[in-house]
Design brief:
The structure is a single chain. The chain is about 25% helix and about 20% strand. The chain contains 2 helices and 3 strands. A hairpin with an 8-residue loop joins β2 and β3. The longest helix has 22 residues.
Length: about 110
């Protein structure tokens, strides 16, 4: 009889097709207030002086901490499967605005 019971914490999540495509971001800016964390995902494009926020996610501090833990656990799994990533101290704080590509000319 107990085999027919559904787990009480089961959650049905719908992923719409347009959201499933995802949004590419190569920079994230994080800010916070007393009650929330705001993560802006930005796309920098070579030789374009203006970058656009492509997505904004607003989290409670508790959810931000859970996200940090989940990202850490997943990075550890990633590195155990694919090898260690470069240390962040060797990288600039964010991608340079000039990607060392020639400027487009018409």
């Amino acid at each position: 009889m107990e085999d027919n019971k559904k787990p009480q914490n089961q959650l049905n999540i719908e992923l719409p097709e347009d959201i499933a495509e995802g949004v590419y971001s190569n920079l994230a800016i994080i800010s916070h207030s007393h009650s929330e964390f705001v993560v802006d995902f930005i796309r920098l494009v070579p030789n374009v002086p203006k970058a656009k926020v492509k997505s904004r996610v607003i989290l409670t501090p508790q959810h931000a901490k859970r996200l940090l833990k989940a990202l850490s656990e997943n990075l550890n799994k990633y590195e155990s499967q694919f090898g260690p990533l470069d240390d962040e101290d060797d990288q600039p704080p964010f991608p340079p605005m000039n990607f060392s590509t020639p400027k487009a000319q018409a």
